[in-house]
Amino acid sequence: MTLIELLMVIVLIALLAAIALASMRHKRNVYLAVMQADLRNVMTAQEIYHAEHGHYANSTPELGFVPSENVHLLVVGDSLSWAARTQHQIRNDYRCAVFIGPANPIFPPAKQEATIECLPKRKTGQTRR
């Protein structure tokens, strides 16, 4: 094998690696977008539920909302407020949350009312600095 052939193989491997990394980055963004879309849809569903029942739904089954495939959705609510959190089963190192009403934001990373926030999930025993 000559030096030129060896360099061509290295360039080809680098090119394939770059394509693979771009594809993986795109998938990560898709998982995050799906979780955010589910939370936007829950926001709408909760407002409809509140208009019909006078209080917010306290669970996903009560709300009648079916999350996207591979998305775990947790919803809690009362008469004045509600909060929701999503986590993707495939991309489980990220989570997204939102809340509405005077209640404390019980699901991190939600900090501001009606704003969907997403963060990497912290590992057990890890402290935030």
Give structural notes.
43% of the residues lie in helices and 19% in strands. With 129 residues, the chain is α+β, with helices and mostly antiparallel strands. A hairpin with a 5-residue loop joins β2 and β3 (94-100).
Overall outline: elongated
Portion in strands? 15-25%
The beta-strand count equals: 4
Number of helices: 2
* Major β-sheet profile: 4 strands, antiparallel
Poorly predicted regions are 125-129
The sequence of SSEs as H and E is HHEEEE
**First-last Cα distance:** 53 Å
Number of domains: 1
Q: If strands are numbered along the chain, what order do they take across the biggest sheet?
A: 1-2-3-4
Kindly report the average pLDDT value: 84
Helical coverage, percent range: 40-55%
Structural classification: alpha+beta
Computed over alpha carbons, the radius of gyration is: 21 Å
